[in-house]
């Protein structure tokens, strides 16, 4: 399919494993012309097409609307684990923060695209027994109702970090280290696993090619990101 869109993207969560993977693919992909990464602390990464905006509290993103103007895509990779969090705290970080950011971004960039990273097992009905899945599902639904040109929900399962990327969670890094020797075998089952490279490429490709599929699990990510 012919590429239709020259991407000027905002990326959140680029200091995390998923966001870092998306960032690296954006920097070296000709479909992406410019990138603004929004972080709480400086990343130390420099590149000709890259700018960085430091925002200590993402709930204050409305104070930075001038810096958010002129972008047609948002890759929203910011998130937190539900482990150890009460539902109200997880809801505030996952739902309220995300939707606040999406609304501010949309107000400055009409006809834009929003890509949101959720996870395998996300509960679109919002009625299931798993707390994080309900909250993620509610967030997905709210994003879908906003007036974006398109919105895409990425629901990866196991993600193998590549290109030297590491998770900010030590326990996750242990798991990735243990499973790394088995990844050659695991990737034979595209419905079970993906990697940071394919995830980053898939996010770029769904925007550039205006993909019709809106909810992407591992199999879709591998198919679209492997191009």
Characterization of this structure:
This protein has eight helices and nine strands. The protein is α/β, with parallel strands linked by helices and 227 residues long. It has one domain (7-225): Rossmann fold (3-Layer(aba) Sandwich), CATH 3.40.50.720. The longest helix has 22 residues, at 87-108. It is globular, with a radius of gyration of 17 Å.
SSE topology sketch:
Blueprint: E1 7-12, H1 17-27, E2 32-39, E3 50-54, H2 65-68, E4 73-76, H3 87-108, E5 113-117, H4 131-145, E6 150-154, E7 158-160, H5 170-179, H6 183-186, E8 193-195, H7 196-208, E9 215-216, H8 218-225
Parallel strand pairs: 1-2, 1-4, 2-3, 4-5, 5-6, 6-9, 7-8
Helix pairs in contact: 1-7, 3-4, 7-8
Radius of gyration: 17 Å
Main pleated sheet: 7 strands, parallel
CATH architecture heading: 3-Layer(aba) Sandwich
Q: How many discrete domains?
A: 1
Number of strands: 9
State which percent range the strand residues make up: 15-25%
In order across it, which strands form the biggest sheet? Answer: 3-2-1-4-5-6-9
The CATH topology comes to Rossmann fold
Shape: globular
CATH class, named Alpha Beta
The portion of residues assigned to helices is 25-40%
| CATH homologous superfamily caption | NAD(P)-binding Rossmann-like Domain
Structural classification: alpha/beta
Number of helices: 8
Low-pLDDT segments: none
């Amino acid at each position: 399919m012919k590429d239709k869109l020259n991407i000027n993207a905002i990326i959140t969560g680029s200091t995390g494993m998923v966001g870092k993977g998306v960032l690296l693919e954006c920097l070296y992909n000709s479909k992406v012309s410019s990138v603004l990464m929004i972080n709480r602390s400086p990343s130390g990464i420099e590149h000709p097409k890259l700018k960085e905006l430091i925002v200590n509290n993402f709930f204050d993103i409305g104070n930075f609307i001038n810096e958010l103007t002129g972008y047609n895509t948002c890759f929203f990779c910011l998130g937190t684990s539900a482990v150890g969090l009460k539902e109200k705290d997880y809801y505030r970080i996952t739902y309220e923060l995300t939707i606040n950011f999406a609304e501010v971004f949309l107000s400055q960039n009409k006809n834009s695209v929003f890509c949101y990273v959720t996870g395998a097992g996300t509960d679109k009905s919002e009625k299931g027994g798993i707390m994080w899945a309900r909250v993620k599902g509610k967030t997905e639904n709210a994003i879908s109702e906003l007036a974006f040109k398109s919105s895409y929900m990425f629901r990866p399962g196991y993600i193998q970090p590549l290109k030297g990327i590491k998770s900010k969670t030590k326990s996750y890094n242990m798991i990735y280290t243990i499973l790394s020797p088995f990844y050659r075998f695991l990737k034979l089952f595209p419905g079970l696993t993906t990697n940071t490279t394919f995830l980053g490429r898939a996010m770029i490709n769904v925007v550039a090619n205006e993909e019709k599929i809106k909810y992407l699990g591992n199999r879709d990510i591998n198919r679209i990101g492997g191009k």
